[in-house]
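In practice, a research group might receive sequence data for several interacting partners and want a quick structural hypothesis before committing to experiments. The following worked case mirrors that situation: the sequences arrive first, and a predicted assembly follows.
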Amino acid sequence: MSEAVSALPHAQYSGLVDLAEAGLTGMITLRGDLASPVLAEAVRAATGASVPEVRRIEAGESGQAAWMSPDELLLIVPYEGAAGVVEALETALAGEFATAAEVSDARAFFRITGPQARDVLAKVCPVDFSDFAVGELRRTRAAQVAAAVWREEGDVWSLVCFRSVAQYVWDLLATVSKPGGEVGFYR
Amino acid sequence: MLLLTCPCCGVTAEETEFHNAGEAHLKRYGPGSDDADYEAYMFARKNPRGVHFERWRHAFGCGKFFHAARCTMTLEVFGTYSAQTLAPPAEIAAKIKARRPEWEGYK
Amino acid sequence: MSHRLSTGGRLIDRSRSLEFTFNGKSMSGYEGDTLSAAMLGAGQVLAGRSFKYHRPRGVVASGAEEPNALVGLGEGQRYEPNQRTTTTELFSGLKATSQNHWPSLEFDVGAINSKLSRFLPAGFYYKMLIHPRAFWKHVYEPIVRHSAGLGRAPDAETRDADRYEHFYAFCDVLVAGGGVAGLTAARAAARAGKRVIVMEQTAHFGGRAPVDGEVIDGMPASEWVDGVLAELHGLENVTVLERTMVAGVHDHGYILGYQRVADHQPGADKPRHRLWRVRVGQLITATGAIERPLSFAGNDLPGVMLASAVRDYVVNWAVAPGKRVVVVTNNDDAYRTALALHQAGVTVTAVIDARFEATGDLPAQARAVGIRVAEGMAIRQVLGSKRVSAVALCRFDSDGGAVAETLECDAIAMSGGWSPVVHLWSHCGGKLTWDDARAFFRPDPARPPLGHDGQGFVAAVGSANGMMDIVEVLSDAHQTAQGTGEAPQAEPVPEAEMLPVWMMPKQASYELRAKMWLDPQNDVKVSDVQLAAQEGYASVEHTKRYTTLGMATDQGKLSNINGLAILSDALGQAIPQTGTTTFRPPYTPISLGVIAGEAAGPVFQPLRRTPMHAWHEAQGVYWEPVGLWRRPYCYPQGEESHADAVIREINQTRTSVGLLDASTLGKLLIKGPDAGKLVDMLYTNMMSNLKVGKCRYGLMCNENGFLSDDGVVARLSEDSFLCHTTSGGADRIHAWIEDWLQCEWWDWQAHVVNLTEQFAQIAVVGPNARKVLEKMGSDMDLSREGLAFMEWRDGKIADIRARVFRISFSGELSYEVAVPASQGQAFWDAALKAGAEFGIAPYGTEALHVMRAEKGFIMIGDETDGTVIPQDLNLNWAISKKKDDFLGKRGMERVHMVSPDRWKLVGIETLDGSVIEDGSLAPLPGVNENGQRRTQGRITSSYYSPTLGKGIAMALVHNGPERMGEEIAFQGKDGATIMARIVDPVFYDKAGEKQNV
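A structural hypothesis for the assembly, expressed as tokens:
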């Protein structure tokens, strides 16, 4: 495979928080009956993770499984293996009403790190971050575009948006992360 | 700006996460239907003063459509419920009745 | 003269002197001053001119209610008009300029209007400026336009130098107002463990209590305030924000807070303003009350101020409004001002009290220190030209005919009682009740604004709730916030009843009433409101608009109640019967910048970029916005014009090979056992019989039968289809399909996944297209037979995973190649390299449009406008007759849709070969039933075709296809007639041989 590049390779910024583009990441949209044991087994085989509860993201040894909708998961796996995972899912789910599609290249993936991460996110997302647990995921909007945010660990947050608006989301986050914009709402 | 709870993902969010999709519980009239039925399906929309049923989509969230029962005068939201229904379910009707005893039921 | 007192000033730091300028004149104040305090301290009473009569204006108030003291602040990229000096914190280097005068503040030509005031009564615009008719356009309107507008708008070419942002917050209780009521409520809620936000509009907490010298829980109010603040700051569940005004209260507990983060630190590397967008469980409004002015002749002269404001200036900033002050009142509270002035060493000439007798504790204290109290008296008229020099007194219960006495003074402190600040309560529908005893409107707790659950979500406390005594204020706030234990304790100061006074003297003559200002910014007088009533304006909302009362930038905070009392009196009805005008957000004006928030410059609007966006930009591309996408329109080389670039791009593509970035095309995967059934419903065509490996062009209609979108469908497998949509249509069509799947056919087993951005899609187009791809290297057979027209294959090209569609929108041999977006640029580079020997060049959307028009292909949005059915475009071949149903089928069956009289698509050639203007209409003699010119056709697309060397166009023409060869006249926007001929819309390669090679 030649010269695959993510939306904003190596983008980094430090302000109220540290911002970084996460680089090429394998992502698969999986639609189907989330209660199906066959689907659960396929998800486990692909990521090592169990099917997440509503608005949760679960980690396994080879990837993560994120709840996106009542009949939709986003599987996060290494970029190079994503096409193979889709094939494996299709084989495992043959006969089930399920759809797997690779979306690795359709998304941009950012990490937001630091104690002020929630204050920064709250400048663009109409979301109450006060009781936002590790492993919780929220689809919402980041200012004018759709995004999914989740809390990886204490001060580490992930944000995924469409690739075409990667530059917009980056500029947006960098703008509201500029020093001087401290809010101190989330302590 | 309204506050709505999506029954599909459980999120209570502000109106900007949703798109309104018009009146709820319309019955589709396709080929072969008479003009009056087709006209009602396409163009005759309720515009009540009071209890009203609407379709919404959690466009910036889980992407699902759902129904909301709402008062057009006070903006009170009586409840939200599944899009896969042909009429307001009993528990929604009961909630409305509790708040609006004069309401004559879904027609 | 106003002046700075030698001692005192609880908010100023005399060790830190700050220099500023007013109209270029250097002045100095202290840290902690507001601009109005600093100006008064420097002896500058005159602050501006009024809107209509250009009367001299001085500061009246000390806070957000100020109607007069508006200035232009800053310069260049930081200039802003209409800033209140009373709410502007002084900083070093501040530059203020007064407004609404020419040539200068001291000498204003416009002041002639004041002399003409007899000719400029209420509603004069409507009365005077209509005759003679022709004068409006050429005389009146230019004059009105010249004199309209308060202040000067910033230079249109100047960009705001500051940054702004939003912040979404959530809490159980938001307290609006940091006075003692607000702090009491906040502390009670915080101690109960609730999430609390406190917003105070000024830089200081405590409100009036510290100024009035209240004692709370045995300590001076300011000390008590500091203690509560320290406790609140220490609690994790509490956020305390100063310089933050609750600007608006909206549906379902949505509150907008306007935080002036850095107004007092210009140039600091901070957002200037922050808009707090808060969802609250409960809003507690502790917004206090505003003192009412009194209406007496000459009450608009500089030097006439609110009594409470005079007290604020003396106590907070050690500024006296004059050397000799007259206090005029109808209540006890104003005596506090007399006492404060006296204590500061300022002469109080007299307290003029309209009441027959003033016997309360406060009047007694005033008398005890030797202040003269004149009972049952009124100000007949203020004397002076640019400021107060004396007052003539008369009996209150008189018509003012007899001057009882004249007192020399240089300032007047007036008090007409207080009005609770009910704005926030009212913004979202809270209703008011009239309190007769205290003569004000206060919130009616039985009719609060309702939230999402139908329950009230706003509670007013303290003075905002009509509590005027400190003991009441504290217990009200404590109880409403469900505080446990005792409410804070205070010493009661009993006050005698006030006397409602809406003008003085009570039976003032017309001569006096015509000099009594209600709204000093807009120049509305008592006589204007009375005239409106006389002319039949019975509704307060109409009177407001007719007289402009309360329509100034202060929105009538001082003038409303007095105005409607005058109106009620003139109408002979009680005040509550008249009612109030509507209170609308924002409470005071907020900056446009904060409304935009971060959405400025590069993040003004999301720009959607394809994977090759940066490459296009590096070529000096000329962009075309398509929805939020930017698509290359053309790639001009050097000095080449856009038109020439388009011609070059078309010629290159038609004769050799061109490259198009088609990544923006929508790509929707439809998959599942019922996928075939679904695509048959979505498209007018039969799609379910498409063979795997094949492509078919399809049309989508809405339920009206009108064309909505089009594109090529590829069958990927037995149970999956890839549906291409227009660039602008992807999200809309995706939502449309989800709608049908979720809400109508929810038992159908089909999924739709939007894969638009997964792929970069690159069209390699032209006679040499195959050679380019073969040179790039592929594991697929791309030959004429190996991959026939309207087929697709998966494989690799240039070692990149690729799906190749052999489809053509140009009529040429054409391959559209979809590769992972992450390798889009790599594929593009490889194609350019392989195509170099054929002179390969990228082409943009305009070349695409011309080439499709040469082929007679329609474009959604050009040939369609939401009222066009496929049959109008001769696309009957794409409408299945075998299907019982598809979306739009019923709509197409309507009488009007099957009428033989519809306008249909044809080609158009001008007789002289010129390019006809897009949108031109073909007129017919006569008019229709609406009196409009009859027409028989319209140009939908028009281009210069380099391939044919002349102008070509498409048009919808009445019975068009049956009129081939007929000459028809079109009319351009300039009115000129263009003769054209109706022709076949396919101008180029009608047999379709070129795409099939």
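Before designing any experiment, note the following. Helices of chain B lie at 35-42, 90-99. The domain at 3-99 of chain B is CATH 3.30.2270.10 (Folate-binding fold).
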